[in-house]
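Question: Hello, beginner here. Any chance you could explain the protein record under this note? Any guidance would be welcome.
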Amino acid sequence: MNMNNKKFIKVFIFSSLILFFVSAILAGCAPMEPDSIHRLKVQVKKLNKQTAELSKNDAYLEKKLHEMQLNTANNGVEISSLNAKIRDIYGRYEVESHELNLLQKSFREYRIMVNKELVKLLKLAKAEPVLPGKTSVKSA
């Protein structure tokens, strides 16, 4: 056998296989009966109705999503406003607290000064004997 014959045999086997597979595929494609066509048309109509309903639902859901996004944005603005008010109130509280601390410190210093003066007056009162007709407090 020469090379030409071998090629011819290979081509013949290959084309036979292709012909066999094509005929097997075409054998499965029998002509449709009118009943099958009617059932397919009914299924297509049902699918079209379902698609239309899904489209309506999709539009409704998109509208609701948009409304929710707007509500979220509005709530965010309100929260920001409340945060600003809270920060303002807290700032005023800090100022008042600082002033209260200063007043408490001044009051402590004043109380200490008054106590020192009272101690001095008590020492003077103990040091000077009180005579029966005189008062120990000198008038200014």
